[in-house]
Design a protein that fits this description.
Length: 441
C-alpha cells in the first residue's frame, strides 16, 4: 500500500516536469536545493489558485483590503516580531566527521550521524531567515521576509488611516517568502522560496471566538473550492501546551499527501494583540484603533495562512487519476474547470486540410477571447491529442471536422465535437452555442 501511494507522488513529480508544470530550480547547473521553477502550465495553475483565493477572500467580501508590501523590510521589523531570535530558529546538530547538518528534532538518535556514523556535535539554534545587505556600502542589514504577515502588521495604521475600515476587517496579501530550511524535501512541500496567501483579520477582543468560527467555515469552503475532498483534510487542534505563548487557539489544516500522509497545508491562529502591540512598543507608533465613540484599543487578530505550493501539490494529488478508457490505461487530472491550466483545446481533425485549420483558428480565436487560457493543438492524431490534454487536465477538447464545414450533412454545418475529459463522451454543439455550453461545465 505504502509503495503504491509513494509511486503516485513520483508520477506527479514526473508529470509536472514532462508537461511543463514544475522544473527543478537552476537545473542545468545541477539545481539549487529547495528551489523550484514553475513552467508554462504551472504558472497557469498557480495563478488560477491565487486568483480564486483573492476572489473568495477579498473581492467577494466587503471586509477585506488588499496589500502588496515590499519583500525587503527594515531589520527592526524582524527584531520586533521575534524572527531574529530563537523564536524563528530550528535546532540543528552537525556531524564532526562529514560536517552534514540535521534538524535535531527530526533525528531518532541525536548522537550518531545518519549519513556517516560519525559523532554529532552539540545542538545549536539555526535561524531560518536569509540575511542580506542593502545599499551601495552594504552596511544596512536586512532579510528576505520569511512570511508575508509582518508586511500587513506594519501597514495596519496606513490601511486604517487611508480606508477607515470598521471592525472586524481583514488585510490580505499574497507574495513570496523565504526560509533557509535545513532539510528541504518532498517536492514543493518544504522549500526555501515559496509563496504565501495570508490574512490578518482584526477583531475586538470580546468577539474573537465568534469571528474565529466564521473564518473557520470560510477556510473549509476554500479547501472545497480547490476540489480537495474533506476526507483528505484533517483539522489538527494544536494542544494548549504546544501553542505559541501569544496564541489562544491554533488549528493546522493537514492534507493527506500521497506517500507522505497528513501534513500541514495551511494554518489558522488567534494571535491576540501580540503582533500589533510588539510593533507599537518597538516603533513608538500607536497601533490603536479609534471607535466612532472615541474609545481606543489595539485590535486582536486572527491569522489564516496558506502556502500556494502546498495548495498546488494538494490540488494535483487530488486531481491525479488513472482509469481505463477504450481498453487502455489513461492518466488524467480531474481538476475543477476554473483551475485547469487550459479551459479548452481546439483542434482541426487533420492539420493538412487548410479549410479545417482556418475554421479551427476561427473557433480558437472566439474561445480565447472569451476564456483567455485556451490552447490550439494540431499535433499528431486526435486520440493522442485527447490523451495529452487529459494529462494536463483540459476539461474540453473541441474538434473541427468535415461535418463542421457541412460537407457531409448540411444540418451539421457549423457544429463541432466537444469531448469531455472525465467521461470521454463527445457531444455535437453549434459553434454559436459553444461558449454557453462550456460555461455550464
Ligand atoms: P511547517 O511546520 O510545515 O514548517 P509552519 O508552521 O512553519 O510550517 P507557517 O509559518 O504557519 O508554517 O506558514 C504558513 C504556511 O506557509 C504553511 O501552512 C505552509 O502552507 C507555508 N509554508 C511554510 N513554510 C513552507 C516551506 N518551507 N515550504 C513551502 N511552504 C511553506
Amino acid at each position: 500500500m505504502a509503495e503504491k501511494t509513494e509511486s503516485k507522488m513520483d508520477k506527479i513529480v514526473s508529470l509536472c516536469k514532462r508537461r511543463g508544470f514544475v522544473f527543478q530550480g537552476s537545473e542545468i547547473y545541477g539545481g539549487l536545493r529547495g528551489t523550484w521553477d514553475f513552467g508554462p502550465l504551472g504558472v497557469l495553475l498557480n495563478n488560477n489558485i491565487k486568483r480564486e483565493w483573492w476572489k473568495m477572500f477579498v473581492l467577494d467580501r466587503e471586509d477585506m483590503y488588499g496589500l502588496d508590501a515590499a519583500i525587503l523590510m527594515n531589520e527592526k521589523v524582524w527584531e520586533a516580531s521575534g524572527h531574529t531570535g530563537a523564536g524563528f530558529a530550528d535546532p540543528i546538530v552537525e556531524c564532526e566527521k562529514c560536517n552534514h547538518r540535521f534538524r535535531a528534532d527530526h533525528l531518532e538518535n541525536k548522537e550518531v550521524c545518519p549519513d556517516c556514523g560519525g559523532k554529532l556535535g552539540e545542538q545549536k539554534d539555526f535561524n531560518l531567515m536569509f540575511a542580506t545587505k542593502v545599499g551601495a556600502e552594504g552596511n544596512v542589514q536586512s532579510y528576505l521576509r520569511p512570511e508575508t504577515a509582518q508586511g500587513i502588521f506594519v501597514n495596519f495604521k496606513n490601511v486604517v488611516d487611508s480606508m477607515s475600515p470598521k471592525l472586524p476587517f481583514g488585510i490580505a496579501q499574497t507574495g513570496k517568502a523565504f526560509r533557509n530550511e535545513i532539510a528541504p524535501r518532498e517536492f514543493l512541500f518544504r522549500v526555501r522560496e515559496f509563496e504565501q496567501m495570508e490574512i490578518e483579520y482584526f477583531v475586538k477582543e470580546g468577539e474573537w471566538e465568534v469571528e474565529f468560527e466564521k473564518l473557520l467555515l470560510d477556510i473549509r469552503a476554500w479547501h472545497a473550492r480547490l476540489g480537495l475532498s474533506a476526507d483528505n483534510i484533517r483539522e489538527y487542534e494544536v494542544p494548549a501546551n504546544d501553542l505559541a505563548h501569544y496564541s489562544k487557539r491554533t488549528i493546522d489544516f493537514e492534507y493527506n499527501y500521497p506517500g507522505k500522509g497528513y501534513d500541514e497545508l495551511a494554518g489558522f491562529a488567534y494571535r491576540t494583540d501580540h503582533d500589533l502591540k510588539s510593533h507599537q512598543v518597538a516603533s513608538g507608533v500607536s497601533m490603536e484603533y479609534i471607535e466612532p465613540d472615541g474609545s481606543r484599543f489595539i485590535p486582536h487578530v486572527l491569522e489564516p495562512s496558506f502556502g500556494v505550493g502546498r495548495a498546488l501539490l494538494a490540488v494535483l494529488s487530488e486531481a491525479y487519476t488513472e482509469d481505463e478508457m477504450n481498453g487502455e490505461v489513461r492518466t488524467y487530472l480531474k481538476l475543477p474547470t476554473y483551475l485547469a491550466p487550459y479551459r479548452a483545446a481546439v483542434s482541426p481533425l487533420l492539420k493538412n486540410k487548410p479549410e479545417l485549420v482556418a475554421k479551427a483558428r476561427e473557433v480558437f480565436a472566439m474561445l480565447k477571447k472569451e476564456f483567455g487560457n485556451v490552447a490550439f493543438d494540431d499535433n499528431s492524431n486526435v486520440g493522442k491529442r485527447y490523451r495529452r490534454q487529459d494529462e494536463i487536465g483540459t476539461p474540453h477538447c473541441v474538434t473541427i471536422d468535415f461535418e463542421t464545414l457541412g460537407e457531409e450533412n448540411p444540418d451539421l454545418k457549423d457544429t463541432v465535437t466537444v469531448r469531455d475529459r472525465d467521461t470521454g463522451e463527445q457531444t455535437r454543439v453549434k459553434i454559436e452555442d459553444l461558449v454557453n455550453y462550456m460555461m455550464q461545465g
